[in-house]
Amino acid sequence: MLKPLLGAAILALGSVGPAMAQDRIRISSDWGEVTAELADNDAARALSAMLPLTIEMRDHMRQEKTGDLPSALPDLPRQQDFSTGMLGLWSSDHFVIYYKDGRVPRPGIIVLGQVTGNVSIFDRPGEITIRVERAD
Question: Percent of the chain having pLDDT more than 70?
Fold first, then answer.
């Protein structure tokens, strides 16, 4: 009796449909365009809810582009290491695109996502305006 009920429960759960796909975004600028997959966390979901956005980005330490968001995102556990293509949050409203690997001081960054395209388009000095929107 238990096996048929267990089988029915598994079948019912499987028929709900596939898990929700991860949000994808497009980051475009005069230097080119990349796509990224957002992390599965509250901060990334809050960022997604703000889209579309235009952000003035500046170069920081020749490893990242940084810019201010219109409002703060939720605070979550942070990490100090970052990798090429990572999207992060430094302070509660400070968006970062890392184009090199490295490490930041405490308190660290909140991971917002990962670029799936060629993030080296941002590996040049100077400021750039980016447009962040949902990818099709």
Answer: 84
pTM (predicted TM-score): 0.83
Determine the Cα–Cα distance for residues 122 and 34; give it in Å rounded to an integer: 10
CA distances (Å), 18 to each of 12, 13, 14, 15, 21, in order?
Answer: 12, 10, 8, 8, 8
**∠ CA(45), CA(51), CA(56), 5° rounding?**
115
Work out the number of other CB atoms within 10 angstroms of the CB of residue 6. Answer: 10
CA gap 90, 111 in Å, rounded: 9
Q: Write down the H helix ranges in 1-136.
A: 2-14, 42-50
Task: Note whether 38 and 47 are within 8 A (CB).
Answer: yes
For residue 43, give Cα distances in angstroms to 26, 54, 83: 17, 18, 19
Residue type, 28: S
